[in-house]
Specification:
With 298 residues, the protein is an alpha+beta fold. It folds into two domains: 2-80, Phosphorylase Kinase, domain 1 (2-Layer Sandwich); 91-297, Aminoglycoside phosphotransferase (APH), C-terminal lobe (Aminoglycoside 3'-phosphotransferase, Chain: A, domain 2). Helix content is 48%, strand content 11%. It is built from twelve helices and seven strands. The chain has helices at 2-9, 41-52, 91-100, 111-129, 134-160, 182-185, 198-208, 215-225, 230-241, 244-254, 264-267, 270-284; strands at 17-19, 22-27, 30-36, 62-64, 76-80, 169-173, 191-195. The strands form two sheets. A five-stranded antiparallel beta sheet has the order 1-2-3-5-4, with no helix packed on it. A two-stranded antiparallel ribbon has the order 6-7. A hairpin with a 2-residue loop joins strand 1 and strand 2. Helix 5 runs antiparallel to helix 9 and helix 7 packs antiparallel against helix 8. The longest helix is centred in the middle third of the chain and has 27 residues, at 134-160. The protein is globular and about 60 Å long.
């Protein structure tokens, strides 16, 4: 991979290191990462064009074109990191990011549609590829059921709020995981346009399975800082219902990128997360009347 980088970017790489197929090196005390990318050249350019709209875009890591003027090189992209790698971002940083980068979205596809399509595809995958993966076979149906509850919940929300407030759309991330480090948080390839609550929801879902005892403190802080209307409170609960954490892990396992053991922390905490969702409903009822999810009462 060292030669690929040197030949395609005309830079000298003295000490190339790698972790989980992510390659990185230093030049003049600045980190460069060579990472696998699933986006097309057109999609990458769209994300860069989106960032150009913001005057504070210098905070984001810089994607570097190769000698052919393209960002993709053998399915990888080269990224120059801005600042220190070990900076960790918390709840207030997520709020600040959301308020700093506001966007309008004319082509927004609602979560319930995306989730339904995703579940249909996963069910097909499982029928074709999961016959030797015991962990998936034993857990998949439960999390599909949880996902279907989330989809049903959003159907009710759409009936209650037929029109979305365009001011609710912000620059977000596909995932904000815990701990939330700079490498991901200011990665232009991680960006999405979505409702402002997306990042915090994904952060809390990730943190729940690492240090549950801190989750409620974060939720209190978020709701004290953010004035969410009834629509966003409903969407918040709908997103917390959807088990993106499990399906992210599922995709890694089904594609042989990880062992089934990464599913275990989600499976053994099924009841704990179910109880959390019950408590979260009561919490959100203080802001708006959250729809009952009958499955949670069983």
């Amino acid at each position: 991979m060292k030669k690929v980088i040197e030949n395609n970017y005309l830079i000298k790489v003295d000490d190339l290191k790698s972790v989980d197929k992510i390659y990185y090196f230093l030049i003049n005390n600045q980190y460069y990462f060579f990472v696998h990318c699933l986006f097309s050249e057109e999609e990458i350019n769209s994300k860069i064009t989106l960032l150009i709209e913001f005057k504070n875009n210098k905070k984001f890591h810089q994607l570097l074109p190769n000698i052919y003027g393209k960002y993709l090189t053998n399915g990888y992209v080269l990224m120059r990191i801005q600042g220190c790698l070990d900076i960790e971002y918390g709840v207030e940083d997520i709020i600040h990011f959301s308020n700093e980068f506001s966007v309008n979205s004319k082509n927004y596809v609602t979560w319930d549609v995306l989730w339904s399509e995703k579940i249909d595809y996963f069910e097909y995958q499982v029928s074709e590829k999961a016959y030797e993966k015991k962990g998936i076979i034993e857990s998949f149906s439960y999390f599909v059921g949880l996902a279907e509850n989330a989809i049903t919940y959003l159907d009710k929300v759409k009936s209650l709020f037929p029109k979305m407030n365009i001011n609710s759309f912000k620059l977000c991330h596909r995932r904000v995981l815990y701990p939330n480090y700079k490498l991901n948080f200011y990665n232009p390839l991680a960006l999405e346009i979505d409702l402002k609550i997306r990042d915090f929801c994904e952060y809390i879902k990730s943190k729940f399975f690492v240090c549950y005892e801190e989750v409620w403190k974060d939720i209190d802080l978020y709701f004290a800082k953010e004035n969410l209307d009834s629509f966003l409170c409903h969407m918040f609960y709908g997103r917390m219902l959807f088990p993106s954490y499990y399906f992210d892990a599922y995709e890694m396992v089904i594609n042989n990128e990880a062992e089934e053991s990464i599913l275990e922390k989600y499976i053994i905490n099924i009841d704990k997360y179910k109880d959390f969702l019950r408590q979260l409903k009561k919490y959100l009822d203080n802001y708006t009347q959250i729809f009952d999810v009958y499955w949670l009462n069983n």
